[in-house]
Amino acid sequence: MQGALSSANKPGGTKGDDRRKLSYPMVLLIIAGALLFLSTLRVITGVDNLTSFGQYSAALGWAVPIGLAGLGGLWAERAGVINIGLEGMMMLGTFAAGWIGWQYGPWAAVGAGIIGGALGGLLHAIATVTFGVDHIVSGVAINILALGVVQFLAKIWFGSPGSPASEAGGNDKQSPPIDDMPTFTVPVLADWLADIQKQEWFLISDTAGILRAGVDNVSWVTLLAVVLFVGTFFMLWRSPFGLRLRSCGENPLAAESLGVNVYKYKYAAVVVSGALAGLGGAFLAVYVHHYQENQTGGRGYIGLATMIFGNWRPGGVGVGAGLFGFMEASQLRGGGPTIHALLLVGAVLLAGYAVWKLRSGARMTATVALAAALLIAIWYAASDTVPMELVEASPYVTTLLVLSLAAQRLRAPKAIGKAYRRGQGT
Q: What is the predominant subcellular site recorded for this chain (predicted)?
C-alpha cells in the first residue's frame, strides 16, 4: 500500500523535489558563505548588530511564533486544506494563554494556548472538510470571529471591575501578568562563546555571537519549537502516516481508492495546524508576560508567507521564520542602522539575481533587477540611516519581496483548496 501511495504521489512532483534538494556539504558551504558575508558587511558598515548576540537572541524569540504558525499552515496545506485562519487561531492561543497563565503559570499557559488554537482548527475543519465551505472564506471568518471573541471575553474576564483578574492588574486590553518562562543555558559553552565574541576577531567572534543566541538564556518553548520542526519532518516525510496525509493533499481520490480515510487525515492535519498556531500565540503571551489586544500583529499571515517561501517544507519554513524574526527584532530594537546596512545586502542579492536571470535568458527580468540593485546601492551610499516608517514596515516589505522572488520555484500540493467528497471518483 505504501508503495502504491508513493506512485500516486509522483505526478505531484515529489521526485522533482528530491532532485532540487541541496546536499549537506552544499548547505554547510552556503552557511559558511553567509557568515563570511555578514562579517564582511559588519566591518564595512560598522553595524555590530549584524552579528551581535542580542540581535540574534531577539530574532530567535520573534522567529518562534512566526515559525510555528508557518509549520501549522504546512500541516493543513499538505493535507489539501488552505488555512488562512492561522491569525485567528494564534489570537485564540494568546487569549487562552493569558487567561490560564496568570493563574497557573507559564507552562499551563502553553497548554491552554495549544488547546485554544486546536479548537480554532477544529472549527475550520468542520467548515471545510465536513460542510465543504470555501477554505478562504472559512479562514477569513475564523479570523474575524476570533478577534471578536477574544475582545469580548477580555472585557468580561479581565476588565470587569472587582473581578480577581482586574484586581491582579488586568483590564479590557490585557491580562494580568504571567510569570517568567524558565530558560536554559549551556554554561561552559555559553561562557566560552561570550569570551570569543569579546575578542572582536573577524568571522570567529561574529560566528560566536550568532551561535551564543542558541545556547544562552533560551526559552524552553523555543527548544520545543525546534523539536516540533524536526518531528514534523520525520512524521510527514519518513512515516506511513505522513505519506498518507500528504497523499490527501496531492490526490485524495487515489488515496481513497487505496483505503485511506481522507476525512480523518484532513481533520487531524487541520487540528494540529491550529494547535501549532495556538502554541505560537501562547509563546507571544508568555514572551511579553501578558495577553494583549492585537498581540499577534499579523504574524499568522507572515507565518503563512514563510510556509509559501519555504515551499511547504519544514526546513524552508524555519529559514523563512528566521529571516522575518531578524527583521522584526531589528524593527523593535530601533534598528535604523541595521536596516540601512541591509540595503547593501539587498543590492548584492538583486545583482546576483540579475546575473542568474541573464544566464537563463530572462533579459527583461535581469534588467529590472539590476536597475533596482543600482538604485538601492545609490540610496545606501547617499544616506546614513533609513526613515523610522520604513524600519517599522520592514517585516512586511520583506514578506512581499521574498514571495515575489521565490514565486517561480514554488510547487503547492496539487489538490490544495479543492473540495473533496468520499466516493466522488467512483
A: membrane
